[in-house]
């Protein structure tokens, strides 16, 4: 299982809720954590690529990028 980290601009619980919804429906996501306070999203998956997950997060309309390692 691989862990990916993203910086996601979220201004309210509605924003973090949208990201939570899309990740909970995304097949291949084993575990995830959405931190509104830190503007961070961590996702664990054994089948999805970093880009697949980033694309899904960006479909919510939020500005998202792969976090600096």
TrEMBL record:
Q: What is this protein called?
A: Cytosolic copper metallochaperone
Which PROSITE patterns does the annotation name? HMA_2
Where in this chain does the entry annotate a coiled-coil region?
A: none
Q: What is the species listed in this Swiss-Prot or TrEMBL entry?
A: Entomortierella chlamydospora
**CDD domains reported for this sequence:** HMA
The record's gene field reads ATX1
According to its UniProt entry, one GO biological process term is: copper ion transport
Family note: Belongs to the ATX1 family.
Keywords for this protein: Chaperone, Copper, Copper transport, Ion transport, Metal-binding, Transport
The residue ranges of the HMA domain are 1-65
Say yes or no: keyword Transport present. yes
Q: Which GO terms describe its molecular function?
A: copper chaperone activity; metal ion binding
* A matching Pfam family: HMA
Task: Give a Gene Ontology cellular component term annotated to this protein.
Answer: cytosol
